[in-house]
């Protein structure tokens, strides 16, 4: 075939009569009208939701650019799942290319050909267009094939759950039919045109055309010449394929807002409106607590409803959830989708139910929410930025309001209310841990200090963690920094009771602390516990103390917005000491210890606040060989202590802490050669000391805090009363 004699373009409605053409556009109009109405309905439903407490559409231009980058790169899908990342990228990029290709044809036909009487869809442009469309279309089909393989052949467990339904099958099979149908049409068209050479750029369709030629598929001309009597010829087949393809496409367009394909819009909207600090800060507590609860589905904000609609049921959240892994009755995907189903049932005239309660009569069971460790792994894994913890906190606040809280948690609330600490111990004993030191710890209420050290409940009252407190005090003393503590004016930081829904007590604690800090002179706040660090850094500055100033139940006298401009720096101790080590204040040569250790990233330091390096730098500064856990940094697996888990008893097998120690001893490169399991959080210390015993690992591994390694490395373990294992 001579490329110069055949126009390098093609006819778009080949074989379609003018009546069919009109029917085609009528159907297209109906499909788009149904789509528009459905999308309008969905978005009007969001408008009925409550206001969200965070700005979600400020700086919209940048939000859209950033969301586009996140969505197009598929970065979240690639996280821990190369196969899933490639699969979704192929499908999404292929789909977008085919969509844009259709728009290009429309622009050429209606703007250029009909109005300007010219076309750009020919020659080199057409050839390049055809090649790109075929290449991306092929990727699209490969991606769909990968999705089908994973769903139906491998039966990847995270894709199947109680919300899996026929819509998932229809979605994937419709896309498959569109992809395959498009190529079939192309092959028939090229074959019927006599397989012109230039069409080789449409290499998939060209290959199919050669195939049709190989099997001797009749052309209309051949049939008319009496060479084929079956009536089956390329023109008829093309007509059939064209209409089938068009009808499937119209069905898909109209179906988008009513089922799973809606995630193509809702997920993008969800990523645009995400809160960058989601999870690390919970929505502020208005003095009218009703506004924060989940008495009915109408209490949920528009963003929480959008979250529900954005869920693609991918199950990534559930697959990383430590509560689910330990067989607790929690599956984060199900919570989001249960709320969605209930809302949709209710909107369709269904019966009202309590949102959360004990005893199985509610949308969400209280036990489900109690199981959450607030570890944020679900949010980190979610590719569409669903803010699970925001909805979960709403449910927890409702439970606390109703009194549906585990008795052990009630005891903790009582202890904090009466004594200011979770142990129920006397506030006067708070500084006793320091009695065994060879020096006095400064009272920051009386003297100006550089570091105002918030010691925290566990380092103050728990025997094992007191060693950590003494280690840190010794380190700071050795580094010659001035530091002081609040003694009996220090109370529980409130981070974890807030996550269980006890908001008023939280405000009371926050008010007490900021009021006390106002009377002290210091440079920065340093915390032993990542949980305190998180709430001081991210949440105390957002509490509107003024709203509670007239409340007789609130004993503080503080009406400002604390640290609104971030003037007071808040540090986790590893960050502060890393600076000291870098400045040479501790005289470490990096050869002092020779243990092989692994390190567990605490959720509130790592995933919550993105601090992964400071503890690692300190471990390495002691000379220890650090062998990473397979699940490290943002993929870290919770110890089980967060979200109140530390105070609750669960029937679980294995405990998250046991599973984690097993991982250290079996799945790291050094395996059983790991001598110490290093932590940087008092709650982790407590959980892992327990897991070491209950899991039967006592003789195999030690649990130590980073501070204990340093104090040993600087030769001050005796002074800190830290037990060092004999060689
Ligand atoms: S925060 Fe952690 S425990 Fe809670 S649902 Fe998410 S992954 Fe599971
Ligand atoms: S919440 Fe996010 S991670 Fe979980 S199933 Fe839905 S889309 Fe996937």
Description:
The strands form three sheets. A five-stranded parallel sheet has the order 3-5-4-6-7. Strands 9-8-10-11 form a four-stranded parallel sheet, sandwiched between helices. Strands 1-2 form a two-stranded parallel sheet. The chain is 50% helix and 5% strand. Helix 25 links the parallel strand 8 and strand 9 (625-626). It has 28 helices and eleven strands. The N and C termini lie far apart (84 Å). One iron/sulfur cluster (SF4) is lined by residues 320-323, 330, 332, 372-378, 388-389, 638.
Quick description:
The chain is mostly helical.
Largest sheet features? 5 strands, parallel
Task: Categorize the overall geometry.
Answer: elongated
SS element count, helices = 28
Order of strands side by side in the largest beta sheet?
Answer: 3-5-4-6-7
Could you outline the blueprint of secondary structure elements for this entry?
Elements: H1 18-48, H2 60-73, H3 75-78, H4 82-116, H5 123-153, H6 166-192, H7 203-215, H8 220-224, H9 234-255, H10 263-272, H11 302-310, H12 316-320, H13 322-325, H14 332-347, E1 356-357, E2 364-365, H15 366-370, H16 377-381, H17 388-402, H18 407-419, E3 442-443, E4 449-454, H19 457-461, H20 463-478, E5 483-485, H21 495-499, H22 503-518, E6 522-527, H23 530-539, E7 569-572, H24 573-582, E8 596-599, H25 613-621, E9 625-626, H26 656-666, E10 676-679, H27 682-694, E11 702-705, H28 706-713
Parallel strand pairs: 1-2, 3-5, 4-5, 4-6, 6-7, 8-9, 8-10, 10-11
The structure holds iron/sulfur cluster (SF4) (2 copies).
One iron/sulfur cluster is lined by residues 320-323, 330, 332, 372-378, 388-389, 638.
